[in-house]
Design brief:
The chain has 406 residues and is mostly helical. The protein has 3 domains: 210 residues, no CATH class; 36 residues, no CATH class; 114 residues, no CATH class. The chain has 15 helices and no strands. Helix 13 packs antiparallel against helix 14. The protein is globular. The protein starts with a helix and ends with a helix.
């Protein structure tokens, strides 16, 4: 896995450990910073980002290497100097890519995913668009012109990404003089807020100095209200990634080509409302409560989804193209089913049993054809787990049906 995914893969245990510590500290202070439905949705969207991103990185890394080999006008041989230069250049471009992600509709349609949560905790850091990197990677192509080795660039990219994880928390206050230089939890809380004076501020990734230079810095003064100005009201990861583009599509109706291009590439989200001919329907009220048994089942399915995705990332290069797409389909289907359980969709009662059987069958076929080692053990373990989960699901379905009748 010759890309920054290896750094993310290694960091996954750290992510969950830090989220656990944040939850414990918040609980000790009688502060609720996590909510099951929101957290599972955040992490599911993050899983989709990593799984789908494995396909896009071939294009993005290939473009970087192509520019590096053919157009670099200098070469920085010292890797530490290269890392320093790459980190500064990456963060400077990140500022503008991030800013345009808020100011131009085609980019905001992807980046909005990161802002949809109405909570602010470490899981929100992992709630990343499935397509934003593909839309914005070209902005970083000037970096290889400076002779930054691709491996060094990927390390700088990973460093910037991993740094931004810890700033998604309400438990760390202002950090004194560091607030002048670094992007901190306080500065980034402002960025995630819908308070009028906080909108479209603090775009920096690692450094906050770009915001101070270009006039987009805002200090945290009052308590932030998190989310987006028009709440999503959905726990569906797929809808989360596409809903703003549905709004753009509605705004496009009966418009000239020139106006369509203006809406997509020139105007920002604040101007979209004047073109909308109808309201995009929201999908549910977020206040629905889940029974304990349903919550346990959702956590179990998410744990299986997470484990499967880690294995998918680790062995992606060894899988054939067909199995790559097949596994991705199962990942997306599973997160869709989890969201349907959260939203209490009736159709999931009929699709969950086939999904479990298909997942078990597909994994065993893939394991047999791709790896073979320890297949008998894998078959017995996976089949036994599937049978137990099926029994649990049927019992759960029956108890839910009886409860609804009562």
């Amino acid at each position: 896995m010759e890309d920054s995914s290896i750094y993310i893969l290694i960091a996954i245990p750290f992510f969950f450990a830090m989220m656990g510590i944040e939850w414990l500290i918040a609980r000790a202070h009688k502060k609720k910073v996590y909510e099951l439905k929101d957290t599972v949705t955040n992490l599911s969207i993050g899983i989709g980002n990593q799984a789908i991103g494995l396909f896009f990185k071939v294009i993005m890394i290939g473009a970087y290497v192509g520019v590096y080999k053919n157009f670099a006008f200098m070469h920085i041989e010292n890797p530490w100097l290269g890392f320093l230069v790459a980190t500064i250049l990456f963060d400077f471009i990140f500022y503008w890519a991030h800013r345009w992600g808020h100011e131009i509709n085609i980019f905001w349609g992807a980046h909005i995913v990161h802002h949809q949560s109405e909570h602010y905790n470490l899981s929100v850091a992992l709630r990343q668009s499935w397509f934003h990197n593909l839309l914005s990677f070209w902005m970083f192509l000037p970096i290889p012109l400076f002779g930054i080795d691709p491996i060094v660039f990927l390390a700088a990219n990973a460093f910037n990404t991993l740094y931004q994880f810890w700033i998604h928390t309400e438990l760390v206050g202002k950090l004194g003089p560091l607030e002048w230089i670094l992007n901190t939890p306080s500065a980034h809380r402002v960025h995630h807020s819908t308070n009028p004076q906080y909108l479209d501020k603090n775009y920096g990734g690692l450094l906050i100095i770009w915001d101070r230079i270009f006039g987009t810095y805002q200090e945290e003064i009052e308590a932030p209200v998190y989310g987006i100005t028009t709440p999503l009201k959905s726990w569906n990861p797929i809808w989360a990634n596409f809903h703003f583009y549905v709004e753009i599509w509605q705004a496009w109706k009966q418009k000239s080509l020139g106006l369509k291009l203006k809406i997509l590439f020139w105007e920002g989200p604040s101007q979209l409302g004047k073109w909308l001919t109808g309201k995009v329907e929201t999908q549910l009220e977020k206040s629905q409560q889940l029974k304990t048994n349903t919550q346990v089942y959702i956590v179990l399915q998410f744990a299986i989804l997470m484990s499967g995705t880690v294995a998918y990332m680790a062995f992606f290069d060894e899988l054939s193209l067909g199995y790559r797409f097949g596994f991705l389909f199962l990942i997306i289907w599973t997160m869709w089913s989890i969201s349907a359980l959260i939203e209490k969709k009736k159709w999931v009662n009929w699709t969950e049993i086939p999904r479990l059987l298909i997942v078990c069958s597909y994994l065993n076929i893939m394991y047999y054809l791709q790896f073979i080692n320890w297949f008998n053990v894998f078959l017995i373990a996976s089949a036994s787990a599937t049978v137990l989960i099926l029994i649990w699901w049927i019992w759960h379905w029956k108890s839910e049906t009886q409860s609804n009748i009562a």
